[in-house]
């Protein structure tokens, strides 16, 4: 188990051993923290036949869990873009049956925020009438999207972000060269940062931002920069963070930069002045919102971005 999960895992485990956990739990926190692994470990402890020493790792239930074949553990939500009412109704039916091994049943709903409204209401009925030794574990990276009535019926367990030093130590142990900036652009998530670094995205970020701030001197870079920014929505996030750092630098705010490996670029943009940076940042934020999933990709996304880059290029040319 990841080291940063220990502060949450220990009280959960104590609750299992002392029989103090409710029949419904919500494990929440941002993506990339290992909440799914925490839920799986909790399920193993709940199904262990030696409750006072759970998870013992030696009983038949623990062996079945290790093999991924425990008949009283059910997981939904790993695939698909949504979790429909049929899946939740079937889960409710299964949970109402007697445990095959006689030590309770556990259901894990991963990515619980993907439940449709009908599915969430169906689950609500299951929670209102819990069956025997049945425990339901919801896992969510966007808990605010769950029905308030659903949340109110769950014990809530927040998985916080690990300290930067803890995350960087773990990342370096995985064989990648991690920096605070790489962690920052991934919102502090160690697992997302690991994937990001292994994909070589950090080099792309540094290249993109270096070319962005030289648009005033090298107009020919504009098409290339525009193409790179349209590849993935997160590339616009990199630019947004750089603009924030530039504004902070220009105002002389004494606080750590989000992208501390782009200090030169921040200083260069800071010369544009606070008003211009604020205008550019607001326009970029609006552009990002228009490109959010679910909003539909505008037919003129490239045109809008091109106009924004042209504004930046003009500002860099004349400061």
From TrEMBL:
Q: Which UniProt keywords apply?
A: DNA replication, DNA-directed DNA polymerase, Nucleotidyltransferase, Transferase
Reactions catalysed according to its record: DNA(n) + a 2'-deoxyribonucleoside 5'-triphosphate = DNA(n+1) + diphosphate
Q: Biological process (GO) annotations?
A: DNA-templated DNA replication
Q: Does the keyword Nucleotidyltransferase apply?
A: yes
Q: What is its EC number?
A: 2.7.7.7
One of the record's GO molecular function terms: 3'-5' exonuclease activity
Domain DNA polymerase III delta subunit C-terminal positions: 202-313
**Which residues does UniProt call coiled coil?**
none
This protein's superkingdom?
Bacteria
Choose one Gene Ontology CC annotation of this protein and give it: DNA polymerase III complex
**Pfam families membership:** DNA_pol3_delta2 (PF13177), DNApol3-delta_C (PF09115)
Name-wise, this protein is DNA polymerase III subunit delta'
What is the source species?
Oceanimonas pelagia
